[in-house]
Specification:
This protein has 2 domains: 147 residues, 3-Layer(aba) Sandwich (Rossmann fold), CATH 3.40.50; 142 residues, Rossmann fold. Helix content is 45%, strand content 21%.
């Protein structure tokens, strides 16, 4: 009888323990990303906050903008460590240089989930399929070029999303022997100003260019302006992001013909879900979540749900 009682009590304790384990939710979350004036990061943070408050209405959330400056992000990580947050969502401004920051946070008992770009040593990662993004955009450009002509790839800052997009583009272009890449390693600084400046230089060096792939929409808009400045109407442009600005560009006539749209709201939401699982279990078998992208063109723009969409919803091209 005593043995049976011990078994019942043991089972009851296990049930209580399981119940408590299921209730582990973040009490405080810190978010540091490239720049909060960028609507992409605004949507990502919004998705994270919505999901976090769904898990715990009392959760404390600190959002910080690093302005794409590593020193700023280092100070912000230290601030979050001092706040003793449970979870950090890290949009790294430099995919390699943030490794000591990740380690420092983990030594303080904080789980770190990388968002949008890789961060070496992070407990988990949630990002877009950036290789797919580069492939989709560049394949579309190649088809629009009738599979021949000079091609420029405008690169960007030293983060994994950029290198993956460039790699995806180059992979797509391998199928088109009539297309030659004029440049693929110059930095447009992920900004309209940088894209415009770099494109102006490229037009002087490569006057016969037929198409340009820019690593994000802001650069693409700068490229568009440089082409207008030079009265060049025969160059096609595609990029990655699916931003509201690129939607506007696709609604009007001009050189921009496509963008591989990301789902930042979904990235933020999935990052919090993964972080919650890591807090609950200490580790989680699915430490990496890759969010698909969707190619936006003038042909399917009417079906595009924008950055606040939680899932891809465009018809296949």
């Amino acid at each position: 009888m005593r043995a049976r009682t011990r078994l019942i009590l043991g089972a009851a304790c296990m049930a209580v323990f399981a119940s408590h384990a299921a209730e582990v939710v973040p009490a405080s979350i810190g978010i540091t990303v490239g720049a909060l004036d960028n609507p992409f990061y605004q949507a990502l943070v919004r998705g994270a906050m919505q999901t976090a408050r769904g898990l715990n209405p009392e959760v404390q959330i600190t959002t910080l903008s690093a302005s794409f400056n590593l020193a700023n992000q280092e100070r912000q990580i230290q601030q979050l460590i001092e706040q003793k947050v449970d979870l950090i969502l890290l949009g790294a401004v430099d995919s390699k240089a943030v490794e000591p920051l990740v380690r420092k946070a983990q030594q303080a008992g904080i789980k770190v989930v990388a968002v949008d770009v890789d961060a070496p040593g992070a407990d988990g990662t949630v990002k877009s399929d950036n290789r797919q993004a580069g492939e989709l955009a560049c394949r579309y450009l190649a088809d629009k070029m009738h599979e021949k002509g000079g091609f420029i790839i405008q690169s960007g800052p030293p983060v994994s999303s950029v290198t993956d997009r460039v790699a995806g583009c180059r992979k797509a272009l391998e199928a088109y022997p009539g297309i030659w890449v004029l440049s693929d390693n110059e930095d447009g600084q992920a900004s309209s100003w940088g894209g415009r400046k770099l494109m102006a230089e490229h037009l002087k060096r490569f006057p016969g260019v037929s198409a340009v792939f820019a690593i994000n929409d802001r650069q693409a808009l700068g490229v568009e302006q440089a082409l207008r400045d030079a009265a060049r109407r025969n160059v096609l442009v595609a990029s990655v992001d699916g931003s509201p600005d690129i939607e506007a560009a696709l609604h009007r006539s001009g050189p921009i013909v496509a963008s591989a749209g990301q789902l930042p709201l979904m990235i933020g939401s999935e990052a919090v879900k993964l972080g919650q699982k890591l807090l609950q279990n200490g580790s989680h078998p699915q430490r990496s979540v890759v969010v698909p992208v969707q190619l936006i063109t003038r042909e399917n723009l009417a079906s595009y749900q924008g950055w606040l969409s939680r899932s891809p919803a465009l018809p296949a091209r």
